[in-house]
Amino acid sequence: LRINDYVLIYLNITEIFIQVGRLFDFSLFFEKLFTFIEEMNRLLENLSSPVSQKELQNAERKFMSNYEKHSSWRNAAFEYACCLLRSGAADVRNGIRLFEDLLETNDNDDVDEVTNDQCIFCMAFGYYRIEEYATSLRIIKGLLEVKPHCKATLDLQRRVNYEVTLRRIKSALWVAGGISIGMLSVIRYLRP
């Protein structure tokens, strides 16, 4: 299975739990939903700020030591992957891979386990950072199917759509400029 298959499976399972939650306890469901929305907003603000080299090294050191001890390594991996997303393009790709690994190795041994929604959201942000907008929008669409009113996900979708529109406008301007230059050269050539 590819990572997109894992994302779709997870989102379908989450939707089933939401439907079951609607049958039994609305207050608990809405409490969890609002908590999720607040967490995602904080996460988006955190991911939008640049990372210092010292902070990146500290997160890497913490991840490596926790991974070797097998203690709370998912939280350390999540923090390290978030730092990687806030860094350069090569590091962003490594961060995305780390989030994919977190999704694939989902175990319930960790007490402070990071949610899969957060990992999927961060993957969408990572693809946005490395300008793979189609992949980012596909992941965002899946998240919005499960939680359609999540402000952070909607904000990320607006950012990605803005960049896609900007890229299309730039492409159109380049084409128009090329056509203009071609027309001017033809006119100049045909002049006696």
UniProtKB/TrEMBL annotation:
One of its GO terms (cellular component) is mitochondrial outer membrane. Pfam families: Fis1_TPR_C (PF14853). InterPro entries: Fis1 (IPR016543), Fis1_TPR_C (IPR028061), TPR-like_helical_dom_sf (IPR011990). Keywords: Membrane, Transmembrane, Transmembrane helix. It comes from the Eukaryota. The keyword Transmembrane helix applies. The chain crosses the membrane at residues 171-190. One of its GO terms (biological process) is mitochondrial fission. This is Mitochondrial fission 1 protein. The gene is Fis1.
